[in-house]
Automatic annotation (TrEMBL):
Keyword Isomerase: no
InterPro entries: Diverse_Catalytic_Enzymes (IPR051094), HD/PDEase_dom (IPR003607), HD_domain (IPR006674), YqeK (IPR005249)
Protein name: bis(5'-nucleosyl)-tetraphosphatase (symmetrical)
EC number: 3.6.1.41
Length: 201
């Protein structure tokens, strides 16, 4: 179990209260995943001089909206005047980009760094703060992840966060193309930016 007492009000309540709200939204398997992401994000925060409590909150909430029905996302895209092109994608994109709006309104989390970490955890972004990079990587390398290349991803991330980000951007793009799946334009921009910064992955 992760032992951390919230004192900084990234979330207006205790960690147990946050866990209770998240557990109402997620099935047990997904709930266990977000706790592993929290744990990994906290370790990466310690190693990269990022606030550990902020990383805990961001890790726990990153998939808050993952199991909501499509109608909720479509309604939110319209209600909050978001880019209508979003309607051409699905849960994989929505639960981050649109999910952040649910995190903000329902969990009363206002820190833009945490909200951007949620927004960008599936697509990445051209510019990502250290916290955003941490959540993006923690989601990819948490202990239960088991895919070819995950050990390399863990090693690179330990070496330098940005190396991990470039690796994930590249491999996710390769995976989508190989499966004849459409690529969200922002994911291509993420790849372009990070592969130029870290050409060796
Ligand atoms: Fe996710
Ligand atoms: Fe996740």
């Amino acid at each position: 179990m992760t032992e951390i007492n919230y004192t900084q009000h990234w979330f207006p309540g205790t960690r147990d209260e946050l866990l209770a709200q998240i557990s109402q939204q997620l099935k047990p398997k997904r709930f266990a995943h977000v706790q592993r992401v929290e744990h990994t994000a906290m370790a990466l925060a310690r190693a990269n001089d990022v606030d550990v409590e902020q990383a805990s909150v961001a890790g726990l909430v990153h998939d808050y909206a993952k199991q909501r029905p499509a109608e909720d996302f479509e309604a939110a895209i319209r209600a909050y005047d978001m880019d209508p092109d979003l309607l051409n994608y699905g849960n994989a994109i929505w639960h981050g980009v649109v999910g952040a709006e649910f995190v903000k309104r329902e969990l009363k989390i206002t820190d833009e760094d945490i909200l951007n970490a949620v927004r960008h955890h599936t697509t990445g972004a051209v510019y990502m703060t250290k916290l955003e990079q941490i959540v993006y990587m923690a989601d990819y390398i948490e202990p239960a992840r088991d895919f070819p290349g995950v050990e390399q991803a863990r090693k690179l991330t330990e070496q330098e966060l940005g190396l991990g980000v470039a690796f994930q951007a590249k491999h996710t793009l390769q995976y989508l193309v190989a499966k004849d799946k459409p690529v969200y334009p922002k994911s291509i921009m993420t790849y372009n930016a990070w592969i130029q910064r870290y050409p060796t992955v």
